[in-house]
Amino acid sequence: MNGSESASGPWVWTAVIAVTLALLSVMQQMLWLVVPLLLALILYYLLYPLTRILVFRGVSSDSAAALVTAGFLTTSAVAVMLVAPKIAADALDWHASAERYLQGGMQLLAVTLRDLEASFTVFANAHLADSVAQRLAGVDLGLALRLEPAIRLVAAWMPLLLLVPFLAFFFLRDGRRFQRFLGRAVPNAFFEKTLFLLNEVDRTMRAYFQGLVRLTLLDALTLAGGLSLMGFSGALGLGAACAVLAWIPYVGSIAGGILVVLVAATDFPGQPLMAYAAAALFVLVRLLDDFVFMPATIGNSLKMHPSVTVLMIFVGGTVAGISGLMLVLPLLGVVRVIGETVGQVIGDARLMARHRQARRLRRQRAEAGL
Q1: What range does the domain containing 166 cover?
Q2: Helix, strand or coil for residue 81?
Q3: Helical (H) or strand (E) element with 200
Q4: Averaged over 269-282, what is the pLDDT?
Q5: What is the pLDDT of residues 217-258, one digit of tens each?
Q6: How does 97-112 read in b/e, with b if 16+ C-beta sit within 10 Å?
Q7: Could you give phi then psi for residue 57, rounded to 5 degrees?
Q8: Mean pLDDT across the chain, nearest whole number?
Q9: CA-CA distance, 137 to 157, in Å (whole number)?
Q10: Domains identified in the chain, total number
């Protein structure tokens, strides 16, 4: 068995999964740093191609990083200035809007249950609509009141998000320097493997995050186009919100589907078919995402079996909650690359012999003349 085959053996994968879960547990306690760092990595991989274009045109790495970051901040500031008035106006009546959408969802549920009672005798005999209405009495108010703590939480996180462009700038400027710094810290025998490791980690993270952004754009545009054809107002914003929610596996998709149905039920009162059509459109987009968009964007960049991916998503959610669902796949991909590279180094008898010989030669030179 050669080194590459043994690198993916059961012991290596056991260590990779154990380290991934341990890191998830630590990250859950440091979300105040992990979230800005994760967003900074996404921004870094989005801006990196522009930085490389400027470098290839003769601009220094430091100047290219500064120009690209300044351009991003300027564009972001202009966008915020354009949308801030509308956001501020909508924020004044967020409570009323939440109540309105929740009431629209309740009315859709009542109509659906009445239709089921009319179509199926067993539901009519059980008085399904009345039973559900009694159980859900007061739930809409409770859900609306929970929005206020959520808004306070978002406001508390806003200062931390200012770290994102700051960190992304230093990633762009000093990324290569950091790689050279790590390369100088390893013995010569492992230098080639270290270069391979750094390149693979960078490739894995770049493929994942850039693929995630492309996937988000495809999801948002597809859903927004379908909703716009159905006559929804604000279809682009709704599609973008659902696409971003889909970053959280399973939970985000469910939340996005509920959001689409609530908007449809509220904007088209008395037309339950519109809500059903919107739900069908959402399911269709999710199927396209799973079987068309994802293979074309993220694809097999993580090089893991689908069963391992699904299992780790559930385990990550159990260990670290929502943050675990979001972080487990990129973290597992990076730890897998590191684990397999270390496995190749340890399993390469010739490479280890070169390292031992180099240590003996250094010790002999140090002891010469004593």
Answers
A1: 3-367
A2: helix
A3: helix 191-229
A4: 90
A5: 999 999 999 999 998 888 998 999 999 888 877 778 888 999
A6: ebbebbbbbbbbbbbb
A7: -90, 5
A8: 80
A9: 33
A10: 1
